[in-house]
Amino acid sequence: MPQHGSQSKKEEARVKYEKEEMERLEIQRIENEKLQKLEAKDLERRNEELEELYLLEACFPEAEKLKRDDRFLSQWKHYIQCDGSPDPSIAQEMNTFITLWKEEANETLEEVIEKSKLVLNLIEKLKLILLETPPYDLQRKNIIQYQGSILELQELLHLKFNRATEILLRQASTLADLDSGNMEKVIQDENVTLYIWANLKKNPRHRSIRFSETQTGFEIPRMLATSDIALRLLHTHYDHVTPLSPVLTPSQEHVSLVTDFVKEEVKSVQTAVSKDLQEENKQQENESNSVHEEETKAEEQGDVEEQTCPVQEEPETTKYEMEMKLLSQTVSAAQELLLENACEKPYFLEEDEVDLCQFTTLGGVYHLDILELPPQCKPMKGWMIVEILKEGLQKYTYPPETTEDLETENVFPPIEVMLEVHENVIFFENPMVARWDAEGKHWKTDGISNVSYKSEERLITFNLETFCPVTLIQDAHINMPFQSWELIPLDVNKVLLTVTTVFTELQIQIKENLCMLASIKVNNKKHSSILEEKWMTPVSFIIALKNAGLNIFPTGHSHLYVVINYKHPSVEVKAYRQMALLSSAFAFCWSKWNTVCDSKKTIFQVREHLLKEESIQNPNWTLLMFSGDRAQSLKINESSDAFSEALKEETEFHSTLYHMVKDFASQEAMREVRRSNCQFVDSVCHMLLSTRLLSYS
């Protein structure tokens, strides 16, 4: 009897299991049918949605056309100003400027510093041309020309500082301090700070040098204290020592793809234009045959003019359409190029060489020189007599090249250097010191010891074996990967991008074709920056943030140094372009699930955000998954326990983000999107492409 009861229970369990399995399969079949219908519906309207998106994305070539027009306009404005400064993009004008400045002699340090403002402005303009011009519009000869002009200006500026230093040192005896008997001079400007000390008394006990009202100075060995020398510290707030970064250029494969597209477009447009002209001519002939013979000659001419007007307009319209199509292709290719990852490091590193793909120089360059004191001016019968050395300003070699087998470290001890760190630069960790190796043309970390940094006083102290240019370096990826990000509309054609990292929170405002640092927090405390409230173009803004130590902009090599959540470039580009299109009426936000899905899908949160709405304490975000070709709302939310790609109830698949949000958006929100300024959309997209939030969060 017990055995019979046991079998009965097993039978009941089997029947129950089979029933549940059949119900599960039936539910799954219904779900699959439903999904198939939704996929078929998505496929059916795909072309229509992509065509509408193409029309909306016409804002990108329009914005690029405006940028081109602005470049031509600035050249014209410069031409009609006639202020004597050269146009940096014209080689002849730059060559004339450089040649004339080379010929100017006996310039004082103050005069050189004043002239340097124009020179630095020209260098900045040339760098901006190289960075702002789309890679496909840059010719190789132009890149060589602009970089050549930059290098010539940098070298000439430093040469001028050397010559002006020599002129000052010839007068050292007349400028000597009454107490010490030595000369000391500090010249400060927005771009450079110059410290010069001339050893006139050669007092062996005067080995500690501090420049008045500063913490900058040196501890020199006895040998230098008794020598005819001068010490110069030229702190340039810019870096003209590090080799120029290579200009981002497309590969031959990319160039050929764009070139083929251009050829096909030109051919198709020419065919279309010729057909239109033939049809217009036929129509014109038919209409002219029907004109009554008794009509006056004047009326006939009037009719001909009326008929020929559309013939002239049509080719112009088609020509514009072709130009915008080509621009659209160029812009898309340039955007994808921004997200291209390098396969390996660009060069082999020597021992102790600084990897400039991993580290960045900050706060400019400190040019440290020990100089031979030139012959001093001597008064004679109301005249000042001075001996001018033919070889000019000479460097004093320390330690000497021939040491006759002496223990160099004991006889020629290192020099202690104390430097003030530039106030406008942020170091999130203690800075490292690097010296310039003139022979190898790179920064190195050897020959430097006993580095000590006082963050409150912003003072760094270290020992240097021999004087040479030094700089402070920081890990370029210290703020990567990001912890979170958010993009929220603020006003008409104005958004706020917030990026949170381990050390800092940056808030960036974007409007029209400009960006601004709205606020910055360092270690959860408000931090003031010289960049706050300053509107700049996106490229200039990115350069300024990097120079301030606030680098949140990955390069093609960054993935070699940062653990990233890699997303396919084509998916990223499409996501950023469509997020930018929607940014005037929709807020976007980071999602933890973006790290779970594969590289061909991105996940983020979105919600409608109209300006008239009051700020919501706990806003209702929608979780979207986008693969570049398909967008869908997810059933899960940010607080769900497990990841699932299941479609949210009562939602559909769409081919674009635009049509996906359109399903749950108000008409007013969609009107705001369609009214967005093309330059604003382009600027938002550029900032998203430059930060790569979907891969680096």
TrEMBL record:
Parts forming coiled coils: 8-53
Domain IC97/Casc1 N-terminal: 7-205
Feature: compositional bias, Basic and acidic residues: 276-300
Residue intervals of the CASC1 C-terminal domain: 441-608
InterPro entries linked to this entry: CASC1_C, IC97/Casc1_N, IC97/Dnai7-like
Pfam families, per the entry: Casc1_C, Casc1_N
Origin superkingdom: Eukaryota
Annotated segments matching region Disordered: 272-314
UniProt keyword terms in alphabetical order: Coiled coil
Family label: Belongs to the DNAI7 family.
PANTHER family named in the record: DYNEIN AXONEMAL INTERMEDIATE CHAIN 7, LUNG ADENOMA SUSCEPTIBILITY 1-RELATED
Protein name: Dynein axonemal intermediate chain 7
Organism: Odocoileus virginianus
Gene designation per UniProt: DNAI7
